[in-house]
Amino acid sequence: MFTGRYYHNLESKGRLAIPQAFRQELALGGVITWGLDGCLFLFPESYWQKLSEKLASLSLTNPAARNLTRLLVQSAVELNLDSQGRTLIPEHLRDQVNLKKQVVVAGTLTRVEIWDRDAYHEHLDTITQTISQTDQGLAELNI
User: Fold this and answer.
1) In Å, what is the CA distance from 125 to each residue of 18, 120, 121, 143?
2) SS3 55
3) In terms of pTM, does the model score above 0.85?
4) Domain 5-116 annotated CATH 3.40.1550.20
5) Helix, strand, or coil (residue 127)
6) Contact criterion met (CB below 8 Å) for 12 and 112
């Protein structure tokens, strides 16, 4: 399970250090891909396999299913950690979410989210300002 948030700098070549707290769960591999809300998703290999099976089972005639599958699968790259726990974030993924030098790597239970630091804090501010409006939705989820 991935929890917490960590602040890191993206190296000029596009390498990012994955927090030590997340590395053990990613020891068997993982996949970095386009994410929702302006971030990248980093899935451990085991979860990516389950997600891939779900995506493959979706109706081919459903446009939303096709589009989600395209965005996740066609952007996906394998996680390759070096001896210092760094991985290369390819340019196409950095560009998709406008990653600059300062990055937030945040655990979200089943996945890790990789954000540009400014975008992350703007998103958190928006969530904080609208959380009272989501109370009903949370109640419907039994939370």
Assistant:
1) 25, 9, 6, 21
2) helix
3) yes
4) yes
5) helix
6) no
3-class SS of residue 72: helix
H or E element: which one contains 113?
A: strand 111-116
Cβ atoms 91, 14 nearer than 8 A = yes
> Which pLDDT score is estimated for 129?
82
Burial 4-33 (b: 16+ CB within 10 A, else e): eebebebeeeeebbbbeebeebbeeebbbb
The two three-digit tokens of residue 126, written as one number: 């928006």
Could you report the per-residue pLDDT of 25-65, keeping only the tens digit for each?
999 999 999 999 999 999 999 999 999 999 999 999 999 99
As beta bridge partners, residue 82 has none
Contacts of 52 (CB under 8 A, 6+ apart): 73
Structure tokens at 27: 């020891």
What would the two tokens of residue 55 be? 């995506």
Q: In a 3-state reduction of DSSP, which class is residue 28?
A: coil
